[in-house]
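We were asked to recover a plausible sequence for a given structure. The inputs and outputs are reproduced exactly as logged, with field labels preserved.

PROBLEM: sequence recovery
POSITIONS: 133
GIVEN STRUCTURE:
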């Protein structure tokens, strides 16, 4: 009889925690998670801009389908999807004088609302990087 009460108590507490987790999420939290998951699965075209804060000039601009994460060495780890299902990994070192921004260009189809980010064109110089591969 004691075991049955413990099982019921554990099930009830588990259900309460689960319901609390579901109810604690806002629509924005769910949309953010869905967009991030779509981007990490290479389904969203994005633009990464790294800017030198001393000179206010862009150092690097990357546009494409990529996943982005930080590591413990102050580096951005950028996993890029290239043609024919191949992937490349680039590392971008960040210090006190650099910052980065990531913009979703194509947007993920997980929310019905639209937004727009505008950069001053004179601040971002177009770059073309060519691989030796």
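RECOVERED SEQUENCE:
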């Amino acid at each position: 009889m004691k075991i049955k009460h413990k099982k019921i108590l554990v099930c009830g507490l588990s259900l309460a925690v689960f319901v609390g987790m579901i109810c604690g999420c806002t629509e924005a939290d769910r949309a953010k998670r869905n967009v991030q998951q779509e981007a990490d699965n290479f389904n969203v075209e994005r633009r990464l801009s790294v800017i030198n804060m001393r000179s206010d000039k862009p150092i690097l601009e990357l546009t494409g389908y990529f996943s982005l994460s930080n590591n413990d060495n102050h580096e951005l780890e950028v996993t890029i999807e290239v043609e024919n299902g191949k992937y490349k990994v680039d590392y971008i070192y960040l210090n006190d004088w650099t910052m980065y921004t990531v913009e979703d260009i194509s947007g993920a189809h997980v929310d019905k609302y639209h937004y727009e980010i505008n950069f001053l064109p004179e601040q971002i110089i177009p770059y073309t990087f060519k691989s030796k591969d």
